Amino acid sequence: MRFKEGDERDEGRLGDIRKARQKMPKPKPEGRQASRSALDKVVFRFKEVGSRDPEVRSNAMDRLCRMGEDAVPVLSDILNDPTTATRVAKRILDNGYFLNGRRPIHAEGPEADPEILRGKIRSIRSASALLLGKIGAHLDATSREGIAKTLMPALKDQSHEIRYWAASAYWRLGESGHAALPQLLAVVRDRGEMLRVRHSALDAVGGMDFAAKPAINTLLGIAKDTGENESIRRAAVELLGELGKYAEGKDQKTDLCDTLLDRLGEENACIANAALSASVILEGVYVNELIALTRNDDKSERARVNAVWALVGIGMKKDNLFEFVASHLKLMKEISEDPESKAKPSPELMSTIDNALSQLNSGVYTTKVIRHDPQADEGRGKDRA
After folding, report:
1. How deeply is 322 buried, as exposed, middle or buried, from its count of CB atoms within 10 A (0-12, 13-18, 19+)?
2. Of these four, 7, 8, 182, 246, which has the most CB atoms within 10 Å of its CB?
3. Distance between first and last Cα of the chain
4. Each residue of 181-204: pLDDT tens digit?
5. What are the structural domain ranges in the chain?
6. How far apart are CA 318 and CA 308, in angstroms?
7. What is the mean pLDDT of the chain?
8. Is 273 left (phi over 0), alpha (psi -120 to 50) or beta?
9. What does the alpha-carbon distance between residue 221 and residue 233 come to, in Å, rounded to a whole number?
10. Which of 31, 43, 150, 57 is nearest to 89 (CA)?
11. How distant, in Å, are the alpha carbons of 243, 327, 328, 331, 343 from that of 335?
12. What is the pLDDT of residue 345?
């Protein structure tokens, strides 16, 4: 159809109006329309998360994180509402999901595969728990506390994968996840739980810092329990080094001191090394007790050697204790060299003292290499994403 000359000018003016309208900001959808929009975005990104291309998967997770607080209600529903999780999984599978890149899998109809659907539901719920933690880490305290409450049911989920990622999310929420501390400690104490999940829960407790102060007694019990898994005991001892500064009351402080000093003599080298590091981290709180341990002939040689190295680490970190530690070690060496002295430390202990004094003089702190015990880490599982 041909236009007259005047019509063309009119069409040009109309075109300018259309362009101007396109530049105008569009109103944001509200209510149900807004939630559907967020849901559609999440579903679209979850399809990309299932890609075989690692770059596509990584970019999809980044875009989901950038959705921020808008994605929280949708991810919460996917995590805790089975109906929503099933509906989202079906939408993902019904829109061209391929198995091994060969054939499409449909979530409904004669070609439906219940196992594939269950696997997809499990994967998007795990991803939702992970994303809630990542997004929450960048929100205000009130929003993080809300996410922490949302994640609580997932700690008791039937799937160990979802329990693991829920616990990992609490590590990112930090002190704002304090409401879940009792549930996390219950996971840590559950010997029937997978080690990977228990370690993730321990990491979450450590991430709460001061808010995890009520966990100290539980950690002390785990550290002293010789029937407990050795990797869990080692992690508990390490965590006591971080939280020990919050110990309150004479009884709890004494229990903490005795527990760490006893662990220095553990046959398991990893636990003994963790106790050594914890003693150094506490920066001289129990320096007098460590000195007494080095002089105690009734204690094992391993405990006395590790106590020496703990003293060296403390002397290096605390300038006001450097001379105190050095003078004690020099005195022990002088006593051992005195022919009239009855206190004769073992050759290994004396060799340790010589090395310790050398390090104090040089200002370089390196403890004796302790061989790693692979059995202590059995069942640890993969690292947190």
Report:
1. middle
2. 246
3. 62
4. 999 999 999 999 999 999 999 999
5. 33-136
6. 15
7. 82
8. alpha
9. 9
10. 43
11. 37, 12, 11, 6, 7
12. 75
103: β partners = 99
Beta strands in the chain (DSSP E): 98-99, 103-104
The pTM (predicted TM-score) of the whole model is: 0.78
Range of weakest confidence among 62-76, 194-208, 325-339:
325-339
Whose tokens are 């003016």? That residue is: 13
How far apart are alpha carbons 226 and 128 in whole angstroms? Answer: 37
Q: Pick from 267, 301, 284, 299: which is nearest to 373 by CA?
A: 267
In the predicted structure, residue 289 carries a pLDDT above the cut 80: yes
Rounded Cα–Cα distance for residues 217 and 230 (Å): 18
Helices (H), 174-249: 181-189, 195-207, 216-224, 230-243
- pLDDT > 60? residue 9: no
Task: Quick: pLDDT tens for 84-113.
Answer: 999 999 888 875 544 444 444 444 444 456
The answer for 209, left when phi > 0, alpha when psi is -120 to 50, beta otherwise, is: left
pLDDT at residue number 271 = 95
Distances (CA, A) of 53 to 58, 63, 124, 384: 9, 16, 17, 21
% of the chain exceeding 70 in pLDDT? 78
